[in-house]
Amino acid sequence: MNHIFSILTGTGAKRNLTGKLGMAVHGCAALVALAVIYTTTIVYVDLYAMMVVFLSAMLALLFLNVSAGPKGRKDRPSILDWGLVLASLAVGIYFFIESQRIVERITLLFPLETPDLLAASVLLALTIEATRRTVGFGLTSVVLVFVVYNLWGHGLPGALGFREVSYNHFLDIMMFTSDGLFGVPLRVAATYAFLFVMFGTFLSKAGGAEFFYNLSSALAGRRTGGPAKIAVISSGLYGTMSGSPTSDVVTTGSVTIPIMQRLGYSKPLSGSVEVAASTGGSLLPPVMGSAAFIMAEYTGIEYREIAIAGIVPALLYFLCVYAQVHLRSQKLGLKGLSKEETPPLRGTLKNGGLFILPLVALSAALLMGYSPTYVAVVATAVVLLVSMVRRSTRMGPKAIWNALALTTLRMVSVVAACAAAGLVIGGISMTGLGGKFADLVYLLAGNSAFLALLISAVLAIILGMGMPTPSAFILAAVLVGPTLLGMDFSVLQTNMFILYFAVLSAMTPPVAVAAFAASAIADARPLEIATGAVKLAITAFIVPFAFVYGEGLLMVGNWTEIAVSCLSAVVGVLLLSIAVEGFWRQRLSTLPRLGFGLAGLLFITPSWWAVALAVVFVTLAIVGTPHLRLHRQKLLA
């Protein structure tokens, strides 16, 4: 009984397939990557047909590479797995053959045929099982709740009820239109997100990840709190390529966490630093993770505009983490690395400086207005060219083939989550639940925009606790986005606000997935790591409220407003960091901390009266702290 329960509620174990089967799966994964490149950049194919084939292939690879439960076999698939693989391929072939008829038919007017219903039912079941294996019970339960609600929710009283939806109607919308399974999330996973993950994989395999770590070490390794600062910089740089807080923690944390612990950082603190930095990587332009691509597709805002808007908030995020790491290290007396342990900056740039070029090319192509698909392919091509300069980094045919296969396998869980999110979005649209939820938010918040924002932030965090960032973002955007738009916030402000809290859910207790990943490396309790990470990144929970009340932080408006907003926010972040750590040259008592904290909040608030009041609080905090008052008198003298 316990075994069955663990299978139903836990994720599957990743397999390490070897031998002929491993080679075959590896080859198929590489071919999928080549097919994605071909269909997105070289030849035009029908979008529905492309996504059907893509989903079918990814589901087959998923069932081969992920077991049914946490204790499943890791060396080879079971008979059940092979059956699911065959079912995935069979429904994919059927939908592909019938794709022309499906695209041309009029939804709900032309009845579905019996084979259509059978294939759609099988695909629905396969998607739910794939979600359970890769994401776990959180998102799977949400999907099941919405399926049940769609089919039987018409019997509910009051506003929750709706006109009856038959099973055929349900399948018609979910499987045979672009409003359900094959909607925006899966479309993004099959195009932009896939290609940017490919870029990050190629850059890492060519030696880019090692270069960015060495660069971080050369820049900050010997400073106070050097190892933690290395983690902040390297995790941020790697995170903007990977777009996944969890994978960033596993990749960079396996190096940075042991170094921090060796130099005196406690186990929870070392994990907290890595989690805070890795989570911020998903907010750092130019890539920002797959959720930002979904935002672009869903809202119609150019990805270039989203990336530009994300620059200042992301830099404020990392300024907060870096400043707190510095203050904490001073408070605890933690030193940096020795000269022998840090690589020289000149040598680092000489050996790997060319790896900066792919990021420059990516950023330049975005600013020039090229599509994200084109940008990702160009950036990957630049990685390959850069890798050819030195023999040690050169990627031959085998390395390229392996990187293509790894890209596909990394996308397996993302595809499952995006497909599941499509099912939920289709259910919300079909029942009109989005409008009803907006009415509920209006009822709770009344005329208070701040309360509506607070409810939206909490919802995005709660959704993110049980599902990946892309799914959390799109569901929160569908449910509360209309409410915020109705309060005169712009589309960019609204969706950037939701995006931030969807990303922050990765480190927010109690279900902080990035903290769980770090706990295995740091040998510390996940909740303790998550709490510490939230403290280090406290600014990230405040800045979104600032940019929805003033767009200067999103680089919108005239340059004077933007400059004043950014400068004020920088001062506010530094003051908040001092208040949170309770340290500046020496430990601070409660009243000065309170003064610095209030001043920090006011500086981040974009208004002249708030800045004036903040100056008063800073003055009172300095006057109330003896060593700071003495230092000020020396400066004046």
From TrEMBL:
Residue intervals of the TRAP C4-dicarboxylate transport system permease DctM subunit domain: 124-549
Keyword Electron transport tagged: no
InterPro entries tied to this protein: DctM, TRAP_DctM-Dct_fused
Transmembrane segment boundaries: 21-41, 47-67, 79-97, 109-128, 135-152, 184-203, 306-327, 373-389, 401-428, 440-465, 472-492, 498-521, 533-550, 562-584, 596-623
Key word Phosphoprotein present: no
Localization annotation: Cell inner membrane
Pfam families, per database record: DctM (PF06808)
Superkingdom classification of source: Bacteria
Membrane topology designation: Multi-pass membrane protein
NCBIfam families in the cross-refs: TRAP_fused
Protein name per UniProt: C4-dicarboxylate ABC transporter permease
Organism annotation: Litchfieldella qijiaojingensis
